[in-house]
Amino acid sequence: MPFIKSNGINLYYEEQGKGDPLLLIMGITAPGSVWEKHLEYWKQYFRCIIVDNRGVGRSDKPSGPYTSSMMADDCAGLLQQLGLEKVRVAGVSMGSIIAQQLAYRHPNLVKSMVLMCPWARCDNTAKDIFRHMVDIKARLKPDEFSRYIQLLIFSKASFDNEVSYQGMLEDRENANKDTNPQPLIGLEGQAAACIEHHTLKQLNEIKQPALVIGGEADKFTPLWMTKEVAELLPNSELHTYPESGHAFHWENIEDFNPRVKQWLLTH
């Protein structure tokens, strides 16, 4: 079980595959293992490095608040101790704001990046969603909290698809069996990082190529957030998935995995 000391905390990571390094940064509430189905595909082409962000999984869960720059420095410490530079990075949701800060604060470490459902700032609606997430985490059973997250991230099409919906039901039940659930203190810290992230003035200084992807039916971080990031980055490409939610990378996995692989191979 590989741990490193980075930015004052113990950070858990795993590596799979061979080739050029690809750092995968997960979103709020989720450990790095949630990359499983994407990792299974991408590890055929890259040396994939998954990390448990501070506040979740096997990494330390100090009291917050956290910031996106702090969490980027966590990842920077990991890459530096692995002796890596010019790494490809993919970040989803909270992972995308960490990736922005990593590219801005440590430009020598990032070759290119895929930003999935990103934002450069939160409006009042987004801030209250993150606050509400913390509020109900303290009150709901694990399966009930899992259902709430699913309602945020999946589109109506996923709920209407019986195979997809059965998978959601299984995930809710698995939440009750999780032996290492995220504690409230970890979610509080991560939510603070999401709420306070603000890179409107920094994004135009990030010169690395970026593929920015969003779901057109995302009700968690709406499409205007994704488009704003793409417009501010000077070297970006935008791709959106119709009728898809925050979890468009699951809802369109057969297109998403090879699309990202091909873009990364050429950037």
TrEMBL record:
It comes from Cyclobacterium marinum (strain ATCC 25205 / DSM 745 / LMG 13164 / NCIMB 1802) (Flectobacillus marinus). Keywords: Hydrolase. Residues 21-252 form the AB hydrolase-1 domain. One of its GO terms (molecular function) is hydrolase activity. It comes from the Bacteria. InterPro entries: AB_hydrolase, AB_hydrolase_1, AB_hydrolase_fold. This is Alpha/beta hydrolase fold containing protein.
